[in-house]
Write a structure and sequence with these properties.
Length: 84
């Protein structure tokens, strides 16, 4: 069950973020004009894709509305903790 998910930041990327399940890799666009919340929102969005793949929930992995909602819930949770 243990998976190490790598997060890599890029100055140029086609999208704000990408998850590559074959590599357990999240790619995140990070530029100087992006806010902290925008970067973390992207990370949580892509992490949610990752969670769904590792839970064998491919039907949810492809559901962008579900991913957006749950990713935002995860982000709000992190923002209410002392670690964010």
């Amino acid at each position: 069950m243990g998976h190490t998910i790598k997060i890599r930041y890029y100055k140029k990327l086609k999208n704000l973020g990408e998850f590559h399940p074959d590599k357990d890799l999240i790619k995140v666009l990070k530029t100087e004009d992006m806010s902290h919340d925008q970067i973390w929102g992207t990370i949580m969005h892509e992490a949610t894709h990752c969670f769904m793949i590792h839970m064998n929930m491919e039907h949810l992995y492809k559901d962008e509305t579900f991913i957006d909602i749950l990713g935002n819930i995860f982000l709000q949770f992190l923002k209410t903790t002392d670690i964010f």
